[in-house]
Design a protein that fits this description.
It is built from ten helices and 15 strands. The strands form four sheets. Strands 6-5-4-9-12-14-15 form a seven-stranded parallel β-sheet, with helices on both faces. Helix content is about 35%, strand content about 20%. It starts with 11 loop residues before the first helix and ends in a 5-residue tail after the last strand.
Length: about 260
Amino acid sequence: MIMHVFMSRDPPEERRETIASRLAEGCSLSATALAEEFGVSPDAIRRDLRALAAEGRCRRVYGGALPLSPASTPMRVRSQEAPDRKAALAAAAVACIQPGEFLFLDSGSANLALAQRLPGIGLTVATNSVSIAAVLADRDDLELHMLGGPVRPGIGGCVDAEAVLALQQMNIDLCLLGACAVSIEEGISAFDAADAAFKRTALRCSRRAMLLTTSEKLATRAPHRVAPLEAIDTLVVEHDAAEHIDLRAVRACGVDVVTADVEC
């Protein structure tokens, strides 16, 4: 009897990073399909997925793994997803903005939707997002400040030392924070360490903070912690948020919850 043994051409480290990159792009993965693709046993793939989960890079499920949060996909992808839902969040958030305030709009697809709805009430707006700055650049009814430095394509904006230094010189009235994941236990978190540090600076420089989030990000985690949930004043959520997170527990943290309408 002749036995055929198939060996993976990729070393375990390379295979694991290939799997991680697919998860970072928002792909759901099957252990059986991966084992067949790489020519290894399902047990080898399960070890890979366990290691990635331990590193905070995926969520294990029966038969495979899922990305931790939809925010693991690049900004250029997220900005095209669920536009009506994000517009509804933006419409709910606009009511919380006061005339003449100095706003900081963090990079994020929900904040991009908000930028498209900002009223002409004498606002000053700072942002680290290329997309948000592009939306607001031709507005003559507000003052726009763009934080500079190297642009990170996945984030869609600047989060490095130059942007942090510029932000530290500002007294922000209201920070519209972006987040990759939100949970009661682990608070607000991000996939990129520099992005998480930048967000912490934004919170320190702001009198108030608001976060708009789609329901898929609720009760999820990302590797780099930004702040506990109580660091924000207002959480703007979709109409079905209570199916994903305990809103009573959110309010118990001292956070106001604003629920968007089903349709904007």
